[in-house]
Design goal:
- With 149 residues, the protein is α/β, with parallel strands linked by helices.
- The protein has one domain: Mannitol-specific EII, Chain A (3-Layer(aba) Sandwich), CATH 3.40.930.10.
- Helices cover 42% and strands 23% of the residues.
- The chain contains six helices and five strands.
- Strand 4 and strand 5 form a beta hairpin.
- The chain is globular.
């Protein structure tokens, strides 16, 4: 699965910092939902946040991977944020978030293995050096292009 295929520049949020994890997730969900009129952003954000309450998806590398599986989707959908100043994930052991990669996947059984593969690919790609490289970039276009390589 190509991560670059999932992220277009208009789905990349570049910010100095963000007030909190909840608001960042909500902003990314709204961005994704622009392409999917059948999705209600408030409902999707609620599902993602509920999943985050169970177990935080923030890794010690600075990557946060909030996600949800949705009946309404037929393929993966994603958006990401790159923060120049870390956001502390108080719900996840106070780990710093530098990059948030939100993805939504179809809830169909055929996608379950692909869902797990995407989680694995994200954890593999977003090593601390790669995250620092993304943080050093200033535009959504640069970030999307770097992710596509």
């Amino acid at each position: 699965m190509s991560l670059g295929r999932l992220i277009r520049p208009e789905r990349v949020l570049v910010a100095e910092t963000y007030p909190n994890k909840k608001e960042l997730i909500e902003a990314l969900v709204k961005s994704v939902c622009l392409d999917y009129p059948q999705l209600d952003p408030a409902d999707v954000a609620s599902q993602v946040l509920k999943r985050e309450e169970g177990i935080s998806t923030t890794l010690d590398t600075g990557l946060s991977i909030p996600h949800a599986r949705l009946e309404e989707l037929t393929d993966f959908a994603a958006a990401m944020a790159v923060l120049h100043q870390p956001l502390q994930d108080v719900s996840g052991g106070d780990l710093p978030i530098r990059v948030m990669f939100l993805f939504l996947s179809p809830a169909k059984p055929i996608f379950f293995q692909k869902h797990l593969q995407l989680l694995s690919a994200l954890a593999e790609k977003f090593k601390p050096e790669f995250i620092e490289e993304l943080v050093s970039l200033s535009s959504a276009e640069e970030i999307a292009a770097r992710l596509a390589r």
